[in-house]
Amino acid sequence: MSSEAKGTKVKETKATAKLCTLQASERECHGWRGEGKGWAAPILVYKNDTEARKGYNTRKRHEYREREDVLKAKVKLMADLIRNCKRCTAYTGAGISTASGINDYASGKNSKALKRPALKSRFEAQPTLSHRVMAGLYKAGYLHHWVQQNHDGLPQKAGYPQEALNEIHGAWFDPSNPVVKMSGSLKDCLFQWLEDEIDQVDLCLTLGTSLCGMSADEIAETAARRAFAGKATGTVIVALQQTQMDDIASLRIFETIDKVMKMLAEELKITYDKRVKPYVFPPADKTAHWGCQCSHCGAMPIIGDCYQRKFKGGKTHYLCGQDFRSEVDGKDKEMYELRKGKAKTKDIDVYALPYDKKGVLLPLEKRIPENFLRLDLRNGTKIIMTDGSFAGDFGQMLKTNTEGHFRVLLKHDMTRKYHHGQKKRPESRRTMGRWMVKCASKGLLSKLPFVNR
Fold this sequence. Notes:
alpha/beta; single chain; 9 helices; 453 residues; disordered N terminus
């Protein structure tokens, strides 16, 4: 019998009421902001004496949940902290994604509080309610940054922008940021981004992570300890299991993350997607004029309104709707609106982006249409990696996956040591989320993962 199978579901009775609650200090049960409020201790719902993550600084696999009246009070306090903080940063672990069907390490497959749908492929996992609420928090201005330990791309699928997300441990949807093995090292630019965020964080929402001693855990600990000195709002920890930082948290909530986030959204009165929506770029509700580059802003394809003017000799001049209205002011009678998208098969998934031939973001003074890089993401085109552990490796575009995200086959150097800790193998298949292209089209990536060759 495995260690996970030794766990048992706990049913509370009058005779076992005390034994069925968390036997810990008031601060460890509720956080220091919850001391003296008379809140009842969390209820033990699953007993398992094995370590949550063997070999790390974790607690037992026991799972606890809040009483409804206490949970309501805690979520109200959490909302107040978010409203009044200077900068709110999320720090999430595997626990935020378990409801999507992706297993975590700490709870094990036999968790009694978590329900997981079966997945045919990890790449097909869909964002949970919590991911969608987090995207809503960002759009409402409450959440400023997100440090994500997971690799699953669920924040972006929920509509959270790539440019405000640090996938510190690697990403399944970014070929330049492969998952870091325990023997590997973090990507330099992402580690520096983490360090910069640690200097700024005022309130850290720590969701679904065992806080077992990873380098990135510093962001939660720093915010917590800074709060004791009156220099920050602190750290909120939401998880079913105990962590080593419970005694320094400003607020500690023992509950499923989806339940807490749903109540938080109601408390803050924010809007979020109630149902999962497929991630599509270019957006399905706007026409993509493939092969048309705006002669002013450089965008290609032009998404939405597109205006055209033909000159003698066959040259065609295009403007996106925004530039047509602002630059031409609609007075150029020789320009006319294209009613239908110029969606010839040969032009689909060819983009013009404000980057140079090495994939480096162009300085503002050089971002003119003729300097934009053409990035051809069609099946069969050749590429070379320009960023991350695989920089310099050759590859080839493959057919998009079932959700429309890009796939690439990379050829690796068997004699080379890759910093993320990859074992020697001649080739690998990688995926790039369409949100990477959207982010790059706005000039919000410092460097492209790859360019054509």
